Amino acid sequence: MEVDHGMLICFALLALASSFATAYDPSPLQDFCVGINDSDAAIVVNGKLCKNPSFATPDDFWYSGLNVPGNTSTQLRAHVNLITADLMPGLNTLGVSLARIDFEPDGGLNPPHYHPRASEVLLVLEGTLYAGFVTSNPDHRLYSKILKPGDLFVFPFGLVHFQMNVGKTHAVAIAALTSQNPGVNTVANAIFGANWPIDPEVLTTAFHLDKKLVEDLQSQEWVNPS
């Protein structure tokens, strides 16, 4: 029987593509997972055990209070109320979470940050927001818009983004994220508020700043909008 070499190559490529499609590491739900052989000292990777379905109740899939404004009397004059599987157990393993973000007028800020495990879609309910994200190396291109009630804006996975209230009234937005535990890394906090502090020489060179200014920034209190 004559072998069709073209057909064999086709099947080989399909098999290879299939292996790439099915053999992959799932997205992590935490910053890191140190390998360990002692089961007594181990934790569940996503941080949650599963309740027996027979014991589940409607309350496991319910949360009340997202209509309540957050406390914006903070340094950033903004507040993020993030609803994850910790507050709404039914979200566990579903790959979604939700946040309400409140902003004071004239500059309330959700500062530049990124989510290491999620993309985000923002819906403005009230007020006027200046929102945007910056692409990765080498372009660092800014995509931004002035958003008003009813507007949507998407922040791609892992990119630095921000929102600021540029209006004269309070602003409210709802953010949907593609992870039950998206994580958040606020850029300024991570750089200047690291524990332990990063050697000032590193930041002086990286940011083209005077060493005294770097040390002054590191001495300040860095807060999160939550």
Automatic annotation (TrEMBL):
Source domain of life: Eukaryota
Binding site for Mn(2+): 113, 115, 120, 161
Keywords attached to this entry: Apoplast, Disulfide bond, Glycoprotein, Manganese, Metal-binding, Secreted, Signal
Domain Cupin type-1: 64-215
Similarity section: Belongs to the germin family.
Locations listed in the record: Secreted, Extracellular space, Apoplast
Species of the source: Salix purpurea (Purple osier willow)
Function according to Swiss-Prot or TrEMBL: May play a role in plant defense. Probably has no oxalate oxidase activity even if the active site is conserved.
Protein name: Germin-like protein
SS bond partners: 33-50
